[in-house]
Description:
Strand 5, helix 6 and strand 6 (178-181) form a beta-alpha-beta unit. The chain folds into 2 domains: 26-120 and 248-316, Bordetella uptake gene, domain 1 (D-Maltodextrin-Binding Protein, domain 2); 122-221, Periplasmic binding protein-like II (D-Maltodextrin-Binding Protein, domain 2). It is α/β, with parallel strands linked by helices. The radius of gyration is 21 Å and the shape is globular. 45% of the residues lie in helices and 19% in strands. Strands 1, 2, 3, 4, 7, 8, 9 and 10 form an 8-stranded mixed sheet that branches. Strands 5-6 form a two-stranded parallel sheet.
Amino acid sequence: MIAARYAIGLALVLAGCAALAQEFPARPVRLIVGFAPGGATDIIARQVAAGLTESLGQTVLVENRPGASSQIAGDLVAKSAPDGHVLLMTTQTLMTSMIIEKRTYPDLVKDFAAVSLCATSPLILVAHPSQPVRTLQDLIEFIRSRPPGAVNYGSGGVGTTPHLGAELMAHMAKLKLVHVPYKGEAPAITDLLGGQLPFMFSNVTASNPHVQAGKLRALAVTGLRRTPAVPGVPTMDESGLPGFEIIGFFGIMAPAATPRPVVTRLNAEIAKVLARPETRERFAAQALEPGAMSAEQYADYIKAEAEKYGRLIRDAGITPQ
C-alpha cells in the first residue's frame, strides 16, 4: 500500500514537472547581468537573449544590475522564484569574488542550478597608445621603471578574469600594481581610452573594436594559443611568461530549486541558439568559443573552475580591496 502511494505520488510530481516544462515560459523571461551595459558579459547576454526570444516564443529581457562583482545580480536571481523566468548571465566572477572575500552567499555552486555554458574566451592585454609599450616585455619594464605601486590598472570588478589576469602577471613577473575595480568592464575601458589607465586585461569582445580602430594597442592574449580574432598578437606564454593562461567563461544559471524539466528545456533552446551559423560567426569574430555542454556537464565544469581559480587566488595572494 505504501509503495503504491509512493508510486502514485511520484507519478503526480513527474506529471506536474512535465506540465510546467510544457507551459514554460508563461511570461517574459528576465536575464540578469551583473555588469554595466557594453561589456563582454552584456554583449553575449544580448546575443543569446535575442535567439531565445525567437526560440521560446516569449521576450527575453536583458536587465543590468552592476556592482559588487556581480553579487548584487546573483543575490537577486538566487532569491527569485525557481520557475525559469529569472536567469543569471554570469562569469566565474561571482565564484572567484566569493573565494577572495570569503563570503558564503550567494554560492555559484550551491545556490544556483547550472543551465548552460554559452561561451569561453581568452583575454587580451591592451595598453593606451600613448604608453611607450608595444610588447609584454615592454610593459613589464615600464612597470619596473616606476616606484612600486605607482602603476594602476582597471577591471570590471574584484574577481573578474581581467583582475585575475593582471594579478597573475604581477605574481609571475614579481610586479607591484594597484587594482582599480569598476562596476563593469565598459567603464574601465572608457577610462583606458581616455588615458586615465595605462593598461588592462580585457575580454576580446569588449576591447577588440578599439584595437581595430587604433585606439588601443594589443600586447598579448591569455590563451595558450593565438586567436584569429586578433591576428598577429602573441600569447602571454610565448611573450615571456611560460604557462600563463586565463580563460573566461560565460554561462546561464537559474535559482537552485528550478525544476529539471525547465532547466533541460532551457539548455536545449540555448544549444540551438549557439549552433546557429550567425551566432557562431559573431562569436568567432569576438574570440568566443560557443559552449556545448549539458546542464550536468556545465555544473561539473563550474566545480572544476572553482578549484582552479581557488589555487590561483591563493598562489597570487589576492585579497579583498
